[in-house]
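Marked as duplicate of an earlier ticket. Keeping the data here for the record.
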Amino acid sequence: MYAFKFHKPSSIEDAARLFSGADDARYLSGGHTLLPSMKLRLAGPSDIVDLSGIDSLKGIKVEGDKVVIGAGTRHNDVALSAEVRAAIPALADLAGGIGDFQVRNRGTIGGSIANADPSADYPAAIVGLGATVHTNKREIAGDDFFTGMFETALEDGEIVTAVSFPRPKRAAYMKFPNPASRYAVVGVMVAETASGMRVAVTGAAPSVFRIAEMEQALASNFSAEAIEGITVPADDLNSDMHAAADYRAHLVGVMAKRAIAKAAG
């Protein structure tokens, strides 16, 4: 690990100031990606700005028909939240299936989505539920937040402060997990929202994506049978030691049907 300066601010304003004043700073949230990268000397930031001491980034609250989750809220807190379970049980289920207990007890929603790992679970919820990402500078629609593999719409130094999820009419998330890491080989969030049907897929491609054909089919018939025969081309899907692209294409259909059945039930 290379030498670096460590900062633990108590406010968002101080965090942004420390970041902008450093040569090559990185924000630290849960640390599950950054710290291993630093230990392997794949990353060598000049400064680490730890966000864990900022209380305003933590917590869950229900505001009307929305659930607002602070960026520093840990996965386990989302999974066990009575408010989330009552309003959006699919979101609590998703959070409860991230990694193992140790990961869920350290990882945060803000850190997860800012990292934008192609196999992470939360991107499916952000896009599938039509969420809005709040930062210290603006609001970003969930559909516009993820721009590629490990890439987001965040500007340099911008801090995710919260995510607001509109309450869906019904929703469910199902994934085929990697047996070791529990990352999504393929994960699908299906939701009937106030603005229509949404089907979002994570793990299968370099970034989360929606399936318009499935959404159109479900709009007239919310059942697994409605998407029978709808397939996703394997050409642009991930292919690695865990699953080939054509297998991931098959899993998209399987996980979508399971999610639909769960939401319908």
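See parent ticket for discussion. The mean pLDDT is 96.
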